[in-house]
Prior knowledge:
Elements: H1 2-44, H2 56-65, E1 72-78, E2 83-91, H3 101-104, E3 107-113, H4 150-159, H5 162-167, H6 174-179, H7 185-188, E4 192-197, E5 200-205, H8 209-223, H9 233-237, H10 248-259, E6 260-264, E7 285-290, H11 300-307, H12 324-332, E8 335-337, E9 348-351, H13 353-356
Amino acid sequence: MKFPLLWFCAAFLLFSIFAKGFIKTNRLSSETESLNTEIIEPEEEKASVEVPAEPSQVLEIKNFMTFYPDLDYEISFDEKYNDWKIKITASTYLNREDKSASEKALKKSADFYWADGRLLPENQLAHKDDYWVLQYKYSNELRDPKTFTEEELENIRKFGSSENRKSDGGTPMFFFDFLYAAKSRPVIEEHIVRSRFLGKTTKVHERILPALKRVEAEICLEAGISVENLSSPEKIAKIDTKSQGLTPQQKEIREFIVSLRSADAYHWREIAETNRKSFHSYGIAIDLLPRRLAGRSIYWGWEKERSGDNWMLVPLKGRWMPPEAVIKIFEAEGFIWGGYWIIFDNMHFEYHPELVGNM
């Protein structure tokens, strides 16, 4: 009887030791979990810090610069002029395989002031009100001349007068002079490249060549032809414009391509009746002129010579226009169309992604 009693005591002792260890282990585990909770909880309960909103002008600057993504820029506030100063840096050469590695690495910089959206150099801030803003709402709707009021007609005549065009400050060109190296003809011609567009030889600024090539490829796609079909006058002449299997849009675009006489872009000159360079001087505007106008009007200045002060009353049906699909393709790549202007220029397309993106 003694042995079983001893055995029972020993078993009870072992059980007690095990139980104490088990309780201690679980207590340590519980304490560890509590410790971890105490470390994590303050992080989760931290109040979020409210970031001050950026000034509206800074947001406007950043929005403008998104349309020129290859440019680097720095923004700082100049208390002297109470305006935002923007230092812009750009590659000297862009999209040029003929340049050496060292030339491709070249950079240029310039300082501008926002000036309520005009991007002016310091020496022009005193004349800010003489210039238009660079980014305005681009309207891509045709206005029927029949809807013009007498007051509007008078304002249009005044706007298109030689006196007004010579005195009006117009678009500030300083940013574009920097971007496209257009300070002088010899300088910019280092950046003008020869190419073909819709089968016509042309010269454009190196910066817009990729966009123009995308326009051409998309026009060909919508017409149901290949860019190879535009490689020679003989191939263009063979483009089918009459097959029953073609859609109305394909026929219209093909007829437009076949009927083109020229696609002129770079031309160093001033805008007619002004003291400002034309955007053709930058190689970023292109005129698509057909072989025949068949009595239709295409440019307000030519119509003014023919019709006098009532040039703006030419009905829309009396004006030559590219197919609507072609206009939309240009716009998708950052070009505006001059046919939407009151002083209409229906052959004219101009690269301004900051305007098309602001429709």
